[in-house]
TrEMBL record:
Membrane-anchoring subunit of succinate dehydrogenase (SDH). It is a multi-pass membrane protein. Coiled coil: none annotated. The chain crosses the membrane at residues 21-45, 65-86, 107-129. This is Succinate dehydrogenase cytochrome b556 subunit. Belongs to the cytochrome b560 family.
Length: 131
């Protein structure tokens, strides 16, 4: 076997993925993260049914920095997955396939996800639920 020093193609560090490709990867990741977040939700509901002591321990975790970070990430993942899923439904209907439309809807998905996440957290903290 001959040994040549030619690089194997394609190298990911040579090519720049388009935003829509990155969002596709993130869409899959948020789907997996939503599954893990749902397990946390089930744990919280089981703690609620398990009595005061188990509920207090679950609430302490949810109120900690790590717990709030997980909840914030889960909220963003939920809205991102929802927004990008709606974009996929629009694509399934045969619309917005032009390169400019794909780019524009990518930014809309990101902006809408961030906006909805921030709104939910502002409402939660202003109503006293996040305090």
């Amino acid at each position: 076997m001959s040994s040549n020093n030619r690089p194997l193609s394609p190298h990911l560090d040579v090519y720049r993925l388009p935003l829509s490709a990155l969002l596709s990867i993130v869409h899959r990741g948020t789907g997996a993260f939503l599954t893990l977040g749902t397990l946390v939700l089930v744990w919280w509901l089981m703690a609620l049914a398990g009595g005061e002591e188990s509920f207090i321990s679950a609430q302490q975790f949810m109120g900690s920095f790590i717990g709030r970070l997980v909840l914030f990430g889960w909220t963003f993942a939920l809205f991102f997955h929802l927004s990008n899923g709606i974009r996929h439904l629009v694509w399934d209907a045969g619309y917005c396939f032009e390169k400019a439309d794909v780019e524009k809807t990518s930014y809309i998905v990101l902006g809408l996800s961030a906006f909805l996440t921030i709104v939910v957290w502002i409402v939660a903290f202003s109503s006293g639920a996040g305090a």
